[in-house]
Write a structure and sequence with these properties.
single chain; 349 residues; alpha/beta; Rossmann fold; eight-stranded mixed sheet; four-stranded antiparallel sheet; 14 helices; 21% strand; globular
Length: 349
C-alpha cells in the first residue's frame, strides 16, 4: 500500500521505503535508522523532527551517499525522480550531489574551506556540473550571493569565510547549495547556531527561493517552532524510527503520539501563561546499540499503563498510515484523542 506524506500529481518526487542504516562498531551494531519510509512531493517541504540521536541526519546522509561504506550497511529503497539513490554508484552520486540534490550543513564555518574565497567555492561547484569557464563561474557566484541577500556581492565574492558573519556564511552555504538549481535541497538544522533575527531571515530566504524555483526541501530540526514556520508535512523520528507523520496542521494541532506531545510540552510558547512550567520528557533517548524492545519510547512514556498487558515493552507498534497520516502507538485512536485533550488542557490552564 502506498503511504505518502503528501500526495502530488504523478506521484512523489522522493520516495523512501524501509530505509535501514546500521553501523558496525567495536561494541556491536548501531541501528541508527531502522525501517523508515516517507515520501516528499514536488515543491513541498518535509520537516523531520526529533531529539539528537533519533536518526534525522543519518537518514539524509544516506540519501546523499556520504556514509563510509567500510562500516555502514544501508538497505531499502530511495527513489529520487525514479532513480534509486541507494544502489547508485559513487560516480552517479557525484553527478547528482550539488547538481540535482544539495545539502546545507549546520556549521557553515566548518563546511567552508578557510583557504579559498567564498566566490571560488560557489563557482567551483557550478563549473564541475556545467563546464562553465572561470569567469562564468565567478559571475554566477556574484549572482547567487545577490540572490541570497549578501550586500555588495561583486565585492564580497572575493572575501574569505572568516570575513563573513555567521548569518552571511549560512547565506553563502545556501548560495552554494542552490547554484546548480537542485530539485532536492536538504537543510540540516541550518539555523541552529544563529540568533533569532537571523534565523527568521534564513527561513524567509528558503521559502522565497523555494517559491521561485519549485525545489523540494527536507528540513531537519529538533525545534518544532521552526517546523511551524517552514514545513508543509512533518515526520517525527525517535530511536531511528518514524513515530508520527502527517501534514503540519495535523501533527502540530492534533498529535497522536506521546512523544510528539512531549516535544510540544517542552517547547515554550507565547500563547501559554508565563507561570505555566514547561514539561520536559523524562529520561534520555535510547541507545541504538541496544535499543528497548517493543516501542522504543516506552521507557519514557507516561501512558504504558493505559495500554496494559506489557504490550508496549513486548511488541513494536505498527505505523498505520491512512492518506499520509499515521502514528506508531498502541493507544487506541479514542485514547489518543482523550489523552491529547487532557494534555492540551494542562498547557492552556
Amino acid at each position: 500500500m502506498s503511504d505518502p506524506v503528501s500526495s502530488t500529481p504523478g506521484g512523489p518526487f522522493l520516495s523512501v521505503r524501509d530505509l535501514r542504516v546500521h553501523f558496525s562498531t567495536e561494541d556491536g551494531i548501531v541501528k541508527a535508522v531502522d525501517g523508515l519510509s516517507f515520501d516528499l512531493g514536488h515543491g513541498r517541504t518535509l520537516g523531520i523532527v526529533g531529539e539528537s540521536g533519533s536518526g534525522k541526519s543519518v537518514t539524509n546522509m544516506a540519501l546523499l551517499g556520504l556514509h563510509d561504506s567500510r562500516n555502514t550497511t544501508i538497505d531499502g529503497e530511495a527513489l529520487l525522480d525514479g532513480q534509486d539513490l541507494l544502489t547508485a554508484t559513487q560516480r552517479e552520486l557525484e553527478r547528482l550531489r550539488g547538481n540535482k540534490m544539495s545539502m546545507i550543513f549546520q556549521d557553515a564555518l566548518a563546511s567552508l574551506s578557510p583557504y579559498h574565497t567564498v566566490g571560488r567555492q560557489i563557482g567551483e561547484t557550478y563549473r564541475k556540473h556545467t563546464g562553465a569557464s572561470r569567469k562564468e563561474a565567478r559571475d554566477r557566484a556574484v549572482e547567487m550571493l545577490a540572490k541570497v541577500g549578501i550586500p555588495q556581492p561583486e565585492l564580497r565574492v572575493d572575501d574569505y569565510p572568516h570575513q563573513f558573519s555567521g548569518g552571511m556564511r549560512q547565506r553563502a552555504m545556501i548560495a552554494m547549495a542552490l547554484v546548480c538549481d537542485p530539485a532536492l535541497l536538504i537543510a540540516d538544522e541550518p539555523t541552529t547556531a544563529l540568533d533569532v533575527t537571523v534565523q527568521a531571515q534564513i527561513m524567509d530566504l528558503l521559502k522565497d527561493l523555494q517559491q521561485e524555483t519549485g525545489t523540494s526541501i527536507i528540513f531537519i530540526t529538533h525545534d518544532l517552532g521552526v517546523i511551524t514556520d517552514i514545513a508543509d508535512d512533518v515526520l517525527v523520528m525517535y530511536g531511528g524510527r518514524c513515530v508520527e507523520r502527517g501534514t503540519k496542521q495535523e501533527v502540530l494541532r492534533a498529535p497522536q503520539h506521546p512523544y510528539t506531545w512531549g516535544l510540544l510540552g517542552s517547547m515554550p510558547s507565547l500563547d501559554h501563561p508565563v507561570d505555566v512550567p514547561l514539561s520536559p520528557i523524562p529520561g534520555a533517548p535510547p541507545s541504538l546499540l541496544n535499543p528497548p524492545t517493543g516501542c522504543r519510547f516506552h521507557p519514557r512514556c507516561a501512558f504504558i499503563e493505559q495500554v496494559g498487558n506489557g504490550l508496549c515493552a513486548d511488541a513494536q507498534p505498527p505505523l498505520e498510515v491512512v492518506d499520509g497520516r499515521g502514528a506508531a502507538c498502541h493507544l487506541t485512536p479514542a485514547q489518543r484523542v482523550e489523552f491529547f485533550a487532557d494534555f492540551a488542557g494542562i498547557q492552556t490552564n
